[in-house]
Each structure stands twice: as C-alpha cells, then as structure tokens.
Design a protein that fits this description.
Length: 298
C-alpha cells in the first residue's frame, strides 16, 4: 500500500495539537491543518504547513478541506462548554467527530487517529467523558482504519493543568484542593502523546486499537503539587482540604471559577491506567514524571 504522505489535523492550534504537528513534521509527513478563523496566530512559527479555514461543526467544507489527505488526526475537544456559541460537549465531541469521520471516509483516508480521554466510557458521571465515549463509538464504526488514544492528564508548556498548579505554587504558601487531593492521576508528557500519534501512522499493529495513555507514575493531586514545587525549586505548599460538596455550588454559580462542575465530577475519580501497551506498541520509552516536570518548569 502507498505510504501515508499528507496528514490532515484538527485541533492543531491547541496545546496538544501544536506538538502533534511538530511530531508529524519530524516524521516527514506533510501536514494540513484545519484552522478556525481567528486562531491562525496559534500556528505562528509553523511555516511549512498547509492551513485550511474551517470548523468541525461545518461538515460541508470538511470534505473539500481533507481532499488529497492520506490520514486524519482528530484532536478537537473542549473542557468547558459555551452553550451561547453552540460549543456544547455533545456538538463538539460527538457531532464534530461524526463529521470528521464521515469526511475521512468520503475522501478515502487510510488512517483515522482519534484523541479521546482516560475515563471515557458509557454511563460515565461527567458529560465530558460520556460524550468522549460517544465520539469513540463514531470512530469505531468508521470504515477507515482507526486508532483511539485515551490520555490521563497531559502536561507541557502551555497546558491548562500543571501550568495552573505551578502558578498557584509560585504565588501561595497554602492551596485549597478538592477533598484534600486524594485523587490519582498519571500525567504524561505532551511530547510522548504527540510521538504516539505520529508513529501510529506507520505502525499497522495500532489499527483498531484503543490505547490508554499515562506517564510511568500515578500520583495523587497532593503529590503532584509537591513534585511541581520540587521542579520549581520552591518550598512545598500546605494543602487545605476543600470539600467538593462546598466547592460545587460555587463552581455552578460562577462561570469564571477555575473548575467547572463537570470537571469536579472528574476530579473525584482516579485517572490512572496501565500505559505499558501504549509505550510498547508505539516504541516509546516513558519519561519519568519528575524529569518531565523539571524539563517543563525548571
Ligand atoms: N490537555 C489534557 O490534559 C488532555 C487530556 C486528555 C485528553 N485531552 C484531549 O486532547 C485534545 C486536545 O486538548 P488540548 O488540551 O490541546 O485542548 P485545547 O488547547 O483547548 O485545544 C483544542 C483545539 O480544538 C480546537 N477546536 C475546538 N472547537 C473546534 C471546532 N468547533 N472546530 C475546529 N476546531 C475546534 C481548538 O481550536 P481554536 O484554537 O480555534 O480554539 C483547538 O485547536 C482534546 O480532545 C482533549 O479533550 C486533553
């Protein structure tokens, strides 16, 4: 079969997307990105890529945008809904993925790589996880040979989670954490996730596989705060117990509150997995968490 040459990427302007584009370019692929009007500036510095204006919620133009592409990498996702502008979990995750999968099949793409999230499952408590699962179902029913990635928290420069913890650690000696920070995560470096996507295109063994993706170490939120402080060379912060039952009504009332009620539901669940199949199949060596955090923050 002809090797994959041109790769269409959705979500390229995001935190993960920019690194995925770099990883694809490093593997020698020609990259074409779907870019929403107004987001072009997020691809500054990526001169050697094709950009096509569009939106995963505008299916008519997607097929034309993808024409001539051998593979599709679908990264679009939201963590916070903006119903006034139509950005609901259902529309962006489910409808957007249905549109992308249909266009990929219509243009004869030979690979469809899909970004899901650890915890995506039928009947999950959070809307984010339930709609991520429904999006996976759309991908699994595609005739295009697919691969699904389900990462835990992804960290790296410009992320939304570890960078926020680092800002708190720099500013405050004590930090409120939901239910004392007992929830466990398996943060994975963004470069490793991106390399996983880029390598999967040339690895037939990854077809029709869903990979849970995490770093080599599971840590509680409280432990992660300590590792962030260590990486910054700061004193470890005091963790104040913030009962979720008290935080939830505030999150519901204040749209600018840093965590949404849906995220609070997710924060009450562990986000851990066995990442060995991912690292083995994608032929990657796991980066230890402390080392990855030092590279990011040190
Ligand atoms: N970050 C994590 O820790 C993490 C963990 C697990 C899974 N994930 C998943 O990884 C993916 C990328 O996450 P991220 O952290 O990179 O998020 P991000 O920085 O918010 O990027 C989201 C991307 O999706 C694009 N997008 C949103 N709505 C769109 C639409 N209607 N049409 C076209 N593009 C649209 C955004 O474009 P604009 O620039 O135009 O807004 C942006 O490029 C998501 O699917 C997320 O659920 C992330």
């Amino acid at each position: 079969m002809r090797p994959i040459h041109r790769v269409f990427v959705t979500g390229a302007t995001g935190f993960v997307g920019r690194v995925v584009v770099q990883a694809l370019r490093a593997e020698g692929y020609v990259v074409r990105c779907l870019v929403r009007p107004g987001s072009e500036r997020d691809l500054r510095g990526f001169e050697a890529i094709e950009r096509i204006p569009g939106d995963v919620l505008a299916p008519q133009a997607l097929e034309e945008a993808m024409a001539g592409c051998d593979a599709v990498v679908h990264l679009v996702g939201i963590i916070r809904e903006h119903p006034a502008s139509g950005a609901t979990f259902y529309r962006v995750h489910v409808q957007g993925t249905v549109n992308v999968a249909a266009a990929a099949a219509a243009v004869g793409a030979r690979r469809l790589l899909h970004m899901s999230a650890l915890g995506a499952r039928e009947g999950a408590r959070s809307d984010y996880h339930r709609t991520k699962w429904a999006a996976e179902e759309a991908v699994r029913s595609s005739p295009v040979p697919w691969t699904v990635f389900r990462p835990s928290v992804i960290y790296g420069p410009g992320d939304g989670f570890v960078s926020a913890l680092a800002r708190l650690v720099r500013r405050f000696p004590a930090i409120p954490v939901p239910d004392g920070g007992r929830q466990r995560f398996q943060p994975v470096a963004v470069e490793q996730v991106a390399q996983g996507f880029a390598r999967a295109l040339a690895l037939p063994a990854t077809v029709k596989q869903a990979f849970e993706v995490g770093g080599p170490t599971a840590v509680t939120l409280a432990e992660l705060l300590d590792l962030v402080a260590d990486a910054l060379g700061r004193r470890r912060v005091v963790k104040l117990h913030a009962p979720v039952a008290l935080v939830r009504p505030v999150a519901r009332l204040l749209p600018w509150f840093p965590v949404t009620p849906d995220q609070l539901l997710m924060l009450q669940e562990d986000s851990v997995c066995d990442p060995a199949p991912f690292f083995a199949a994608l032929r990657l060596t796991p980066v230890p968490l402390a080392e990855g955090l030092r590279r990011m923050l040190g």
